[in-house]
Every structure is written in structure tokens, then in C-alpha cells.
Amino acid sequence: MGAELTRRDFLKLCALLGVGAVVTLYSSEIKRVVGQVAEQSGGKIHLIWLNLASDTGCTISMLQASNPDLIEAVEKLGISADFWKAIMTPDYDLGWVTAGYTQEDLSQVPLFNAALGNAPVDVLVVEGAPQIGTPQGSSQGYFCTTGKYNGSPVTGYDLLQKLAAKATYVVAVGQCSSFGGIPAASGNLTGAVSVRDALKNASVSTKHPIINIPGCPANPDWTLVTLATVLQGIDPDLDDQGRPKAFFTSYIHDNCPRRDAYNRGQMAKTFDDPVGCFWDLGCKGPITQSSCPVTRWNGGTGVCTLAGPMCWGCMHPSFPDPPTSEFFTQVQDTPTILGVNVDEVGEVAIAGTAGILAVHAIRRSIGKKEGEQEREKAAPPSEPPSEAKQ
Amino acid sequence: MTRTVVIDPVTRIEGELSLELNVDEASGTVASAKATGTLFRGFENIVLNRDPRDAAPILSAICGVCYCDHHVASVRAVEHAAGMTSYSSDYSTEQTSIPANAVLARNVVNGADWAYSHMVHILALAGPDYHLYGLIDALKPAYSLSGYADLLRQFIIPAQQYMNQAITLWGGKTPHPRATVPGGNPVRPTADVIEQTRIKVALARALTDIIIPVVWNYLTANAAQLGALGHGPGNFLSMGAFSDPTTSSGTDNMPLLIPRGVITYPGTTPAPFDPNKITENTSLSWYDQPPSQAVIGEQTPVPNMSSSPAYTWTKAPMYDGKVCETGPLAREYVSGIYPRLGRIIHGATSEVTVLPYSPNGSAFDRMTVEAVELLALVGSANTTPNLQFLGQPLNMSPVDVLRGLGLPQSGLLEGWLDGMQVGQPSYTSSYRNPGNAEGIGLWEAPRGSLLHWIRIGNSKVTDYQVLAPTTWNASPGGPLETSLVGTPVGQTGTNDDFRPAAYVVRSFNLCMACAIHAVDARGNDRYMRVG
After folding, report:
1. Of A156, A335, B221, B418, which sits with the fewest C-beta atoms within 10 Å of its C-beta?
2. A57: nearest CB among B61, B171, B288
3. Residues A93-133: pLDDT tens digits?
């Protein structure tokens, strides 16, 4: 594993290699760096994990974190998870404490104490999409309420505004909070939007730019590394979608375990092809930016393009709407001319791509309809801004 | 004289639940309870007009805990619509044209999903209510545990991670492996992937063999107290899971390891299950639709919060006009496994004559069955005869329990791996979207019965209904509300006052996100209303 990493080296490496690669290569060093953060903070870091329109999958995903695991991270970062509904320990067990609370005694209710009282909020993690719609016969935001205050249900949208204005950092973990995700998909009735759009709608500004870690679910290793970074007081380098560039610059297709097959023009005709590239069957790897193939999932056990059977585009800003769906339809528009963003990919990754480009160009030319080549040559279609989901 | 206590949000469950308990001061017990689901997302509406195959990768996100189950239920509904899979007329067996390996791979994936979900529920969600079953003290001498964090780090987190890694081998990642598609489960069962899965199961087993006896002995030592809590309506429903393609009939006529059936109070033997007998009542739910509709063919939800006296997003499903409980207790009652466990214990001690401990179900029954299901899935190598009941030695080990139940010692997961034909396909590309068709996907999620129903028109989704386990259990007038009535409430002014209520609530392993997307019951036939 080489020489000892210093904290400064760690960040430099993240920038150079992408955090995914760093997580894979330097797991023990990361654990040590995380420990250094805790020393620096000199006390508890107050974290509120707020669930909005979600399925709790990103919380379950956090249980799968391996480098470091969730307990290590919480302990070493000195995190006090003042409110994390799904997995909070009995000491902070709001539900049953609430049973005895009085309206004056906010201190008994960690969530309200943080949102409406004086308790500090260092990091607000949002899992799930805020819903800004108004149900018939009710008021704005009532598709999701959490708790009662002064006898009335408190909407998730209201809690988000209060907590986001107060928090030092706001981290949107998962597809729903980052981009709206499935709750905000075409056909939804609830006005679900991203955290960014909800706060814009409410004219609430945050102390630091909102960090989006998209994915259904968010990769837990990236979430913990991002938290470790912001807790060092360093804003991670974000792209225009608010995503840490370290994880979301390259396309899945670029680093896909099946990439060699693609380079050879070996295209799978059925989903049980153990080797071939799934482009023709609808794989969304060519249009989805993420380091999934590098970090992989569940402690490095797998990734969707190996066994999933393909990429479903769950980190694409438009998931699950076009162009990620129809899922079983071949993607046509690629973000860059040949699925490789030459500007963004470092020199290491570029090595050997000359051959890739040639093979790809040949393959894409065969049987191509008139006009498609023109589209490929045109400027890359930018991914729809998150506003498009409203 | 009653006082109203609001518990909102209820923590350590999945999703948004508000509970209102009316406590009778004189008796110190819960007189009536109202369970309110406080989040609506509207999944059925979102999948309309999409390619039928696109429903599953979207609907898996109904639940971030039992993702494999919603996914496979949707795929099965689509395969049923396409004529690839069919049910026998009494719904007791299935026929399919997908390969046997695919059926087994789905069993492995969903069995591992049950196992991880049970681990998380027993240990991390409900566990704190039970002082973690004394696990920390019991394990301290051998494993130097200093507290909950150590227990999480050394046992709970790794055990559930091994199960999730097993799923990942067949599905790419968790949560939300979207690998199963109409036609099968594409990862080919090579000797390598089978062996890797076995290793994950063995690693989990090494941990559950330490944990399960401690949990068992804690629960059974408190059987009298826990058995008196959480009595439900006494009607139990199972929609069946884990079809077996390894009999001589192959995939032409597959029996179900977890059979379908309904037990109706005061009866104790299951009647055949028929999905056409399910209705959903919305008279107390925030929807604008006829108060009662058959779930097969039900309209997609129209939210409306102005309809009084509605108080929840959860609908009220009924089977043949009856409120039913669903979950591990219900299905292992229907399967006969749990009553058989009672006979085994009865053979070793005179303390209990029959299981379920309460004919209406109880906190004890629900938690114990879940531990036994976990044991059955992962298997055991533990032959130490230290199991007890009500504190009395049974002279039985976990392995003895499995043998007595007629279950494989190496566990169901390994059994399904054993049944795979290495190198043979686990996927067929013969699936085509039907033009106009309907399909039903019946399955059991870790926390109970799951039904997906799809209607396809012009090869697009034109109607969809999901009926999830917690919709049954947390419905207005449903098993959760019923079970809370009579629960003692303390007078100390501390959290402990509500510990018995916590036992009851968390014994259902609630998943509110699953419960609300949408559900119905017979309007005239007022269901069992409490209070």
C-alpha cells in the first residue's frame, strides 16, 4: 500500500484518482484520516438525518459501508446522530420520549430541538425528496409530515427549510434528495422535487453549497468520505449539479468491467451473456456519470454491470425518466462523442483509449440510420437541469 | 377518564408512522389506538404509461428494506401477464417457462433478503426495546463487548452485510439490485458464484449461531409476559413464496415452500387463498374513491385529505371481508412450521401445549417466529443443547430444532444453491411485452404478504396496484391498532411506561413506505373497529 498518507496527500489523491479509486486502494489510510478529523473537531459533530419522501434505502445502504464501516465512522468522526429515525439508539429514541414530552420542553425532542429550538446542527443529511405539492383538502407539504408540534403535524418541507437554514452543511444523500428521483418522476402527484429546488422555491439559502450524492441508493463509501471531507472544513469540488467531482466525473461505461468486450465490438444479445457489453440491451452506463465500477458495492463485492445485469442509470439526474427509460431500450444520445469525456478523464484513464475510439466509431457506424452520425458529432447534449423535474 | 398520548414519529421502524393512544387512566391500559401513515408518494401513478418491464426497477424503491421482494413481485406479475408463469386454479402451485435455475436464484436472493431484514429487525430495530436480549452480557466473556456499538460492529453489521453481499453476487448491488428481469435472473450459476455465496452464508451462520440461542432464550424466558401482549384479530394470511422447481415435475408444477392460505379465527387450519377475495376499504383513508373495491382491478389512488373521518394514507385491506394479520407468524402458522415447533417444545417440557402462544398472535409469537425463520434460512452448526423455554432447559440445540421441523441443517439458502444446475441457463430471452393482458405477482416479503397486480394495454402499463404487508398490519382498524388495545401503560413518567406498547408496535416489523402507495375493504361490512 506504499508510504503513509498524510491528510493533505489523501485529499490530493482524491482529486487525482477519484475518491472511488482512493477508497479501494487506501481503505486503512482512510480510516486513519477519518480519525484525524475527529481529533480536529475536538467534540461532537451534531448530525440530523432527515427522511422525506424516501424508502429508507439510503439508510440501509449506510449499514453496508465498509471503508470505514458506519460504526467506525460515527465513532471516529465523533458524530452525534441527534436524530436518525430508522436506526437511532435508545438514548436518542425520540418516539418514546415524545410520548411524555410537553410543548414547552423541546429538549426532550431532538428533531424539534434542532429544527425549532436552540440545538446545534453541524450537518443536515436529507434522505428522500421534499414534496412541495398541496394535497386536495389540505395545505402545502402535507403529503409528508413528521411529528406534531403544538398539536399540529409538521411537514417535511417545513422541517427541511428550518434545518437547512441552520446547518453548516447540507448533504443530499441519494437520488430522491439530490434530483427528486422516483418520487418526482413523471406521473407523480405530490410535487416532489430535489432539496436544491425545494429550498430555492422557499427562498432558503444554505451556508455552503448543497452537496448532492445521487444514486438509488447513494453509495455508502462515498457518503462517508464526503462527510469526512466536509467535516475537515473543506468544501469538496462540486460540479454544476452539486455532485462531488471525485465520484461523478467519469461515465460508468468508461470503467465498466465489460469495457474490454465493448472495445472488441462484442455486444451481448441476451442478459445472461457473461462477457458482452449490454449497450444494445439498454444499459445506461454510457450516459451515467459515476465511479460505481471503480468503488463497486457492498464491500467491493459487485456492481450492476457485472450482475445487475446492466446499469439502470440510477445516478443520472433524470432517473427514472428519459433518457434513462425506457430501461430496455438502447441509448442513442451519448453525452460525449464516443462515450469518453476526453477533457475530464485523466491521463491514466486515457491510455489505451485510442483503440477504443476507433472500434466504437466503426461499430456505431454499422447499420446506422441517416442523421445519427450527425447527432454524435454535435455538441454533447447537456443533462437536463434538475429544474426540469418540477 | 382517558388521556391521549401521541407518539410521532415512531422511530426504529421503516417510514413515517404516527400513533395516537387513548389511555384509560383507571385501568392503566390502552383503550383505543389510531395508527396514521403520514407519507404519501403515489407509486402506482408513477408507473402508468410506462413499458411493463420498467415497473419493477421503479417499484423496487417502494421499500429500501425489502427491495428484492417488491422487485420480484412486479416481475412475476409481468411474467404472469405475458403467460410465462401461471397459477393452479387454487393458487397452491405454479408453472413457469423460465429456467429452474432462475427460480432458485430468485429464492436465494429473496431468502438472503429475508435473512438480512430479520437480522436488522430483531437486533437493531426491535432489539433495543428488549435490552438487546442480554446479548452484551452473554457475549462479553468471549468477545469483550463493551456496549451496543461493539455488538453492532462485531455481530449485527457484519451478519447483515454477508447477506447483502450474497444478494450482490446475483444482483450487482444492494439496496436495489434490479437484476431480476422478465425471463429469469441473468447471472449464470457457475461453480464459482455458488461457492462464493456459500461462503457468505457460512460467515453469517457463524454469527447467527452465537446470537440466535441468546435471543431465543430471552424471548422464551419472557414468553408469559410477551405472549400476553399484542393480540391481533386472529386471522392470518400468507400469499406464499419460494416455489420449488426441483421435484419430478420440474417447472411444470412447482409446490411452494411457504404455502398460500388463510386461517380465520377461531379456526386453526388454513383455507386456500384466492386473490379475488381481497378488497380495500378507503372510508378512513385520505383518498377520493369508492369506499370499497376489489384490489384486482382497483383504480389508482386519488389523494384527498378533506374526506372526514379519514386519518391516514394507509388503506384498509380485507380478505373475504375480514381484517387479517400478515408476516412471519401468519405464514409459518399457515405453513404448519410454527405449530410443529410448539409440538417439539411440548415434547421437551410441559410448559406449553400449543404455538402460537396466543391464538390471536402476540409480541412473543411474532418475534420468535422471525428468529426461527432466520435459523431456517441460514441453517446451523450449533449442536450445544442449551435452548430453554420459560427458563426451563429443553436439552435441544438449534440443529435439533431444524431437524425436528424437518428443515435442512445447512439451511434453505444452501438447499437452493444445491438444487442449481451448474452451467445451465438461468434466463430465457423469450419474454415479449403482451399487447393487452393482466397479471398478478404473489410473494411474501420479510414482513408479510405482497401482491402486485398489473394491467397492460397496448404494451404499456394502464393500471397497477401494490398491496404490501404493512398495509394489512397498520391499516385503520387493522391488526396493529387492535393489538395495542389493552396494552398496559406505566405511570412513572419515563420511556419505560411505553415499553409494552413498543414491544407490540415493533413486533410487526412495520414498513410504512410499503404500506402507503395504496390499498380496500368491504364498505358495508365494518371491520373490527377498536375503541
Report:
1. B418
2. B61
3. 434 344 344 444 555 667 888 898 888 898 999 999 999 99
**In which residue are the cell numbers 405482497 written?**
B450
Q: Are B335 and B369 in contact (CB under 8 A)?
A: no
Single out the residue of B393, B357, B359, B397 nearest to residue B375, CA to CA. Answer: B397
Which one of A192, A272, A314 has the shortest CB-CB distance to B425?
A272
- Full residue range of the structural domain in which residue B240 is found: 2-281+316-515
> Is B265 within the bounds of a domain?
yes
Contact B174/A188, CB-based, under 8 Å? no
From B304's Cα to the closest Cα of chain A, the distance in A is 5
> CB neighbours (10 Å) of residue B31?
20
Q: Is B381 exposed, middle or buried (0-12, 13-18, 19+ CB in 10 A)?
A: middle
- Are B76 and B445 within 8 A, CB to CB? no
Contact B63 A66 (CB under 8 A): no
ipTM (interface pTM): 0.93
Using CB atoms, which residue from B40, B164, B429 is nearest to A190?
B40
Burial degree of B180 (CB within 10 A; 0-12, 13-18, 19+)? buried
Domains of chain A from N-terminus onward? 7-246 (3.40.50.700), 249-389 (4.10.480.10)
Chain A: residue whose CA lies nearest to B501: A96
Instruction: Say yes or no for a CB contact (<8 Å) between B41 and A192.
Output: yes
Q: Do B58 and A99 touch (CB under 8 A)?
A: no
Per the CB < 8 Å rule, is A146 touching B152? Answer: no
